[in-house]
């Protein structure tokens, strides 16, 4: 049986009138890269804060390594490498002092690995935090999260502030290395191509609810894209089983669909509609299709 490093059951959180999380259920298995995606304000950071024990569940249960992160911060936080959304580095310190400061909290701090990462990230020991660029702060934050070799990494938008080359080379290398060593990564991102490249499992959060949580390969195979041609121009797209979104006009339309392929094909055949092209949508196309489909159903 797969061990779950994180178990979230029925988690809800409200800030005043804003329902930030609604009955969230989620399990993160050991050794996996778990990508959390969602539009701005979907609840990603709020969920990560519950995993870290920074927020107490108003409803529901959160367990990390089987422990309650609110009741046992040392037991949980000591085993997590965390990169916060704001990078929160003490402003009066140099990189050297940051190393020493962070090292004091983590008996498993690995100075050789820290130095290796520092060279990879091109950070200088004497550099002071306020003089660091946004990208350098992101790298310093990542370094501090990684250098004690934690069994769980929780990264809030790790790519934010990193330029594309650094993002691809460093982040992919780090995430894969961490996972090859049997550790677990939970990260949030707006960069769907990146999430698709590195994740084993994903969850889509929408307005505080889990819209979809699944192994990435299952998400990709259960969605498909068709370009179809109707015998007559269509003033609007007809109702079709499994169609999430469509674009086009007249006779030719492009559709992103979910499941129920046989039913959809039968419906198209009955309308004498020809399938011109079939393909696999990217995670980004699936995400957009899902979001538009949700918007449409809530507008109806
Ligand atoms: N401390 C807080 N007080 C009041 N509202 C909050 C607080 N923290 C979060 N919220 C609200 O809860 C909702 C979810 O916020 P959260 O930061 O979790 O979203 P997110 O998915 O991380 O967004 P983004 O991608 O923009 O970082 C938002 O509407 C946000 O305004």
TrEMBL record:
* One GO MF term: ATP hydrolysis activity
Q: Which domain of life is it from?
A: Bacteria
* Annotated ranges, domain ABC transporter: 6-232
Q: Which UniProt keywords apply?
A: ATP-binding, Nucleotide-binding, Transport
Q: Which CDD domains match?
A: ABC_DR_subfamily_A
Q: Does ATP-binding appear among the keywords? A: yes
**Do you know which InterPro entries this protein is assigned to?**
AAA+_ATPase, ABC_transporter-like_ATP-bd, ABC_Transporter_VariousFunc, P-loop_NTPase
Does the keyword Transport belong to this entry? yes
Q: What is this protein called?
A: ABC transporter ATP-binding protein YtrB
């Amino acid at each position: 049986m797969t061990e779950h490093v994180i178990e979230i059951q029925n988690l809800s959180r409200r800030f005043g009138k804003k329902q930030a999380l609604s009955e969230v259920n989620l399990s993160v298995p050991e050794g996996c890269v778990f990508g959390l995606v969602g539009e701005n304000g979907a609840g990603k950071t709020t969920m990560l804060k519950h995993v870290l024990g920074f927020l107490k569940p108003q409803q529901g249960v959160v367990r990390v390594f089987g422990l309650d992160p609110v009741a046992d911060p040392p037991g949980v936080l000591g085993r997590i490498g965390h990169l916060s959304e704001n990078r929160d580095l003490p402003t009066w310190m140099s990189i050297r002092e940051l190393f020493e400061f962070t090292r004091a909290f983590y008996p498993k701090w690995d100075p050789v690995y820290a130095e290796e990462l520092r060279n990879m990230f091109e950070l200088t020991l004497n550099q002071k935090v306020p003089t660091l660029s946004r990208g350098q702060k992101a790298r310093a934050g990542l370094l501090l999260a990684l250098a004690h070799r934690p069994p769980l990494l929780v990264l809030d938008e790790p790519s934010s502030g990193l330029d594309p080359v650094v993002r691809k080379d460093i982040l992919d290398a780090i995430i894969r290395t961490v996972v090859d060593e049997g550790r677990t990564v939970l990260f949030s991102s707006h960069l769907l191509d990146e999430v698709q490249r590195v994740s084993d499992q994903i969850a889509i959060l929408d307005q505080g609810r889990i819209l979809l949580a699944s192994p990435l390969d299952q998400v990709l195979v259960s969605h498909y894209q068709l370009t179809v041609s109707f015998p007559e121009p269509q003033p609007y797209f007809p109702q079709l089983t499994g169609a999430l979104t469509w674009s086009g006009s007249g006779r030719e339309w492009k559709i992103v669909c979910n499941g129920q392929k046989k039913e959809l094909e039968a419906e198209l055949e009955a309308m004498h509609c020809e399938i011109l092209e079939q393909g696999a949508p990217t995670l980004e196309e699936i995400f957009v299709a899902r979001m538009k489909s949700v918007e449409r159903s809530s507008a109806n």
